[in-house]
Amino acid sequence: MKTLKIAIQKSGRLNDKSVELLKNCGLSFENYKSSLISPVSNFPLEILFLRDDDIPEYVQDGIADLGIVGENVIEETEVAVSYLQRLGFGKCSLKIAITNNSDITDIQGLNGKSIATTYPVILGKFLAKQNIDADIRTISGSVEISPGLGLSDAICDLVSTGGTLKSNGLKPFADVMSSEAVLIGSKGSENDDLIQELIQRIQSVLRAKETKYVVLNVEKANLPGILKLLPGVKSPSVLPLAEEGWVAVHTVIPERDFWGRISQLKQAGAQGIVVMPIEKIIL
């Protein structure tokens, strides 16, 4: 059996979550902090730890079969890869930011201005769509200090919480793109059976993180109203209790509307509600 290779970030904001995801998929590997290549002992897979900027090209060129990287990196490197799965972590936005005392009031106000960024390709495409002629100044790091040093009128950089912008006297001005971590593969990789098996593991972990397992007790007379509130994976499981006229209902509830649904269940007669995390959901 062949061995797959997956490239992930060696260090940075996506590293910990990528490692956590792979381990939650049941993959066993060690020494990832001290090695650039780590073999998985219970699945035909090797993990490559690379700079995030290199991951898309490694996948495009077939050196790695798969990669976990931010969408912003893929767009900036302009590689030809397939998006296989959004992963739900590493969410951020690429934004244009201006100084707090800037005289720029609308997007057209960027005409003739200088913008410092580490994402010249993405920024250039965005400005072209807006018919804006600005001077893009490419720098390798610490973009947020550029206006304070007189190097630029604005910046374009990744923003998660906005704390770094605020501490440097900057404020968000325009959204360029949203980004999150994605699983990518070389063109045609989605047809590989071994890759599909790994994707299935990843999807089962992601589905589990988005849902809660709920067990509740309810009188049979109130059961129809409860079932209307509980879609489950296919349909809720209903089991009789030792006490006559009562049943236990087992189901899953999406994380996004969990608290609202719990309130509705209580109003419909649910009692003894037990909520548990789910490790994996395999469809």
From TrEMBL:
Keywords: Amino-acid biosynthesis, ATP-binding, Cytoplasm, Glycosyltransferase, Histidine biosynthesis, Magnesium, Metal-binding, Nucleotide-binding, Transferase
Location of the Histidine biosynthesis HisG C-terminal domain: 208-280
Main location per the UniProt record: cytoplasm
Pfam families, per database record: HisG, HisG_C
Keyword DNA repair (UniProt): no
Protein's cellular compartments: Cytoplasm
Record carries keyword Transferase: yes
Similarity comment text for this entry: Belongs to the ATP phosphoribosyltransferase family. Long subfamily.
Name the UniProt record assigns to this protein: ATP phosphoribosyltransferase
Record gene name: hisG
